């Protein structure tokens, strides 16, 4: 589908984002926050970044563990937009002391 990255391009970009891995038509990372509320703050900042980018992750919250899953539904796969938001999520997690 137009805009989707091929397997080699996905693998190359994942090389620059070591916390992320591929799962089919999506990329995913887990974030461990220092506390439940710190995790919620991460989610709130990611939500703002997602709105700015008009690109929205799936988010799973389990106490201090957050899982972010990114895929471009309109394109039917992984695009540069997913990697752009992944980099933002890494910055936000680091700012909140989450890893
Ligand atoms: C109209 C709007 O741009 C689209 O619905 C956007 C919104 N956020 C989105 N987020 C994601 N992850 N995939 C999309 O295809 C998508 N589409």
Q: Topology, pairings included?
A:
Layout: H1 7-15, E1 21-23, E2 26-32, H2 36-53, E3 58-62, E4 65-70, H3 80-95
Antiparallel strand pairs: 1-2, 2-4, 3-4
Helix pairs in contact: 2-3
Bound molecules: the ligand C[C@H](O)[C@H](O)[C@H]1CNC2=NC(N)=NC(=O)C2=N1.
Residues 54-56, 71-74 line the site of the ligand C[C@H](O)[C@H](O)[C@H]1CNC2=NC(N)=NC(=O)C2=N1.
Question: What's the quick description here?
Answer:
Keywords: Lyase. InterPro entries: PCD_sf, Pterin_deHydtase. The protein is α+β, with helices and mostly antiparallel strands.
CATH architecture: 2-Layer Sandwich
How many helices in DSSP terms?
A: 3
Average pLDDT confidence is 96
Name of the CATH first level = Alpha Beta
Q: What is the CATH fold-level name?
A: Gyrase A, domain 2
Pfam families: Pterin_4a (PF01329)
Keywords: Lyase
GO biological process, one term: tetrahydrobiopterin biosynthetic process
EC number: 4.2.1.96
Could you walk me through the main structural features you see in this protein, from its secondary elements to its overall organization?
The protein has 99 residues and is α+β, with helices and mostly antiparallel strands. The protein has a single domain, classed as Gyrase A, domain 2, CATH 3.30.1360. Helices cover 43% and strands 21% of the residues. It contains three helices and four strands, in the order H-E-E-H-E-E-H. The protein has helices at 7-15, 36-53, 80-95, and strands spanning 21-23, 26-32, 58-62, 65-70. It has a four-stranded antiparallel sheet with strand order 1-2-4-3. A hairpin with a 2-residue loop joins strand 1 and strand 2 (26-32). Helix 2 runs antiparallel to helix 3. The longest helix is centred in the middle third of the chain and has 18 residues, at 36-53. The termini are far apart. The model has no long low-confidence stretch (mean pLDDT 96).
């Amino acid at each position: 589908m137009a805009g989707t990255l091929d397997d080699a391009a996905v693998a190359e970009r994942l090389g620059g984002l070591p916390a992320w891995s591929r799962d089919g038509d999506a990329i995913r990372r887990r974030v461990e926050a220092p506390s439940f509320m710190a995790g919620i703050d991460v989610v709130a900042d990611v939500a703002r970044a997602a709105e700015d980018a008009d690109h929205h992750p799936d988010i799973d919250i389990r106490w201090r563990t957050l899982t972010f899953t990114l895929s471009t539904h309109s394109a039917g796969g992984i695009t540069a937009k997913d990697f752009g938001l992944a980099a933002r999520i890494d910055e936000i997690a680091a700012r909140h002391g989450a890893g």
